[in-house]
TrEMBL record:
PANTHER family in UniProt: REGULATOR OF RPOS, TRANSCRIPTIONAL REGULATORY PROTEIN CUTR
Species name: Streptomyces mashuensis
Signal peptide span: none
Protein name (record): Transcriptional regulatory protein CutR
Keywords: DNA-binding, Phosphoprotein, Transcription, Transcription regulation, Two-component regulatory system
Single GO MF descriptor: transcription cis-regulatory region binding
Length: 217
């Protein structure tokens, strides 16, 4: 899952991004509304965590722009105000969910994951395919009943492949969904991560390389 965090309190923004990355999400961070619009114009995000009171371009205007674009991106709006009228106003302009500050990080994570599931065809909470069982909420993976310990990026790559339900996923798509925008597009990190993932999942191999196209399970 790829997430954009838009928050002008830099310490909070960076803390949220760090926490979401530990949950195997690819996260980009910006600190004002103008920068958010620039990122949205060039990147596809599953979820945007959007502070309402932003400098340069207000969070409401960022939200309206996302709605105007007609993309499947979901918006979780943050605000220091917990008034019902503010929550209603945020939802009326196109936000999908609303979370007042201060918030528990566990709740933020749960809401981001819930919104992320709504950007694609509905799938069961626990993904199962080829003897693999992956639980995104618990961050657990089992292969034929054996628990497999994965690093965050390995988990993210496996989740993308599992969600594709047998379709081929290109290296570029994996890079976009599992890494943030600071990753060198010419790096071999996808190939290396897939190799490590194959080794950890064990025999027989379940990740198939489709020459010239990508990978599938």
């Amino acid at each position: 899952m790829r997430v954009l965090v838009v928050e002008d309190e830099q310490l909070l923004a960076d803390a949220v991004a760090t926490g979401l990355r530990r949950e195997a999400m690819a996260v980009d961070v910006v600190y004002d509304g103008a920068a958010a619009l620039e990122r949205i114009a060039v990147n596809d995000y599953d979820v945007i965590v959007l502070d309402r009171d932003l400098p340069l371009v207000h969070g409401d205007d960022v939200c309206r722009k996302v709605v105007e674009l007609g993309v499947p991106t979901r918006i979780l709006m943050l605000t220091a105000s917990g008034d019902v009228s503010d929550r209603v106003a945020g939802l009326e302009i196109g936000a999908d969910d609303y979370l007042p500050k201060p918030f528990a990080f566990s709740e933020l994570t749960a809401r981001v994951r819930a919104l992320g599931r709504r950007t694609t065809v509905a799938l069961p909470p626990v993904l199962e395919r080829a003897g693999i069982k992956l639980d995104p909420n618990r961050r657990e993976v089992f292969r034929d009943g054996r628990e497999v310990q994965l690093a965050p990026k390995e988990f993210a790559v496996l989740e993308v492949l599992m969600r594709s339900e047998g379709a081929v996923v290109s290296a570029e798509q994996l890079l976009e969904k599992a890494w943030d925008e600071n990753t060198d597009p010419f790096t071999n990190v996808v190939r290396v991560t897939v190799m490590t993932l194959r080794r950890k999942l064990g025999e027989p191999p379940v990740i198939v390389t489709v020459p010239g196209s990508g990978y599938r399970i």
